[in-house]
Each structure stands twice: as structure tokens, then as C-alpha cells.
């Protein structure tokens, strides 16, 4: 799945398949300007920062179990969000500090460091990398991902895929080759 935020006409957090199909709103109320987004891949939770409401909230992948993690002045101007173990990590763009927020105890907030011009944060650790099973976009014997001549996108499951073409090409009637 692909998770993303939008705060155009109607603010929301959404998800869809990697090929853009099955687009679903998972949060569309009591939300104003959702920006940073992070996933807890193990427990299947979506965390987001709402910069208008000065809040960090969480919901499960289906849009249920929504609750506030933290709200208020101490978390104004947040950008970037990452989840690792019991903590959320984010950047305060006002003072360029990296904050660590306990996602189970919102009174546990610590400034860890200051960085010049930081706008995003990522956690790279072996435990955050999920094991990959064989999938529909694996390279075939001809060297084409999923048998697609240009682009292979996973669809509704790891066993399904959709072929797409680069700009200037159209997908052939076989659903795999681009012309």
C-alpha cells in the first residue's frame, strides 16, 4: 500500500495500492493540514503531523482506533516524522531540533540535537526493514520486472501487478509492452 496526505479542498490521510487503484480515505474529519506521515509496519498504524492543529495523531490502516499522541505549543512547526520502537522522531523547523516523542506517554518529549536546515528524518535500522517475499514485479528471465517492458507496480496484493509506460509511450494490448 501507499499512504499519503492531502490538504487541498478537503484535508485527509489516504491509502491506495501501489498502482494508484483502490484509493481510500482513512482520515477525513477533524483534520486541517496533515503533513508528515510515518508508518508502524509491525502494528499497522499510520502517524501524522497536523501543522495547523499542532498535533500528532495515529490511526490503524483501516482508519480505526484513532487517537491523539500529543498536541500543543511544544510541538509547533514539526516537519518530517519517523517511527522506531516506542518513539516518534521529528524535526522542529522553528529551532531545527530533532525531537523524540514517546508514542505511549506524551509527557516524554526530548530534544536530541540541533541540525542546520533539516526538513525530514528517517530511521535506518535492520529491524525496520521488513522481509520481502517473492512478488509479482520480480525480474523475469528476460530481465523485465514482472514481465513489463517499462514499469511494474504492485497492485492489490504482492501477487498482482500492473504494467505502466514511461512518458511518451502507451501500453500495448498485451498489457505488458509499451509502444
UniProtKB/TrEMBL annotation:
Residue stretches of each LDL-receptor class B repeat: 1-43, 44-87
Transmembrane segments: none
Any one GO BP annotation for this protein: canonical Wnt signaling pathway
GO CC terms in record: plasma membrane
Gene Ontology terms for molecular function: Wnt receptor activity; Wnt-protein binding
Name by which UniProt lists this protein: LRP1B protein
Recorded name of the encoding gene: Lrp1b_0
Amino acid at each position: 500500500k501507499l499512504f499519503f496526505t492531502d490538504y487541498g479542498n478537503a484535508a485527509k490521510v489516504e491509502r491506495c495500492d501501489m498502482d494508484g487503484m483502490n484509493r481510500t480515505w482513512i482520515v477525513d474529519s477533524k483534520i486541517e493540514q496533515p503533513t508528515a506521515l510515518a508508518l508502524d509496519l509491525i502494528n499497522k498504524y499510520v502517524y501524522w503531523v497536523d501543522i495547523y492543529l499542532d498535533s500528532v495523531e495515529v490511526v490503524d490502516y483501516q482508519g480505526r482506533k484513532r487517537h491523539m499522541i500529543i498536541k500543543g505549543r511544544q510541538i509547533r512547526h514539526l516537519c518530517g516524522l519517523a517511527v522506531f520502537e516506542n518513539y516518534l522522531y521529528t524535526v522542529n523547523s522553528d529551532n531545527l531540533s530533532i525531537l523524540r516523542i514517546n508514542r505511549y506517554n506524551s509527557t516524554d518529549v526530548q530534544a536530541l540535537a540541533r541540525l542546520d536546515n533539516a526538513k525530514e528524518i528517517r530511521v535506518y535500522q535492520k529491524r525496520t526493514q521488513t522481509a520481502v517475499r517473492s512478488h509479482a514485479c520480480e525480474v523475469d528471465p528476460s530481465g523485465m520486472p514482472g514481465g513489463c517492458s517499462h514499469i511494474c507496480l504492485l497492485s492489490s496484493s504482492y501477487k498482482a501487478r500492473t504494467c505502466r509506460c514511461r512518458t511518451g509511450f502507451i501500453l500495448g494490448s498485451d498489457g505488458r509492452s509499451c509502444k
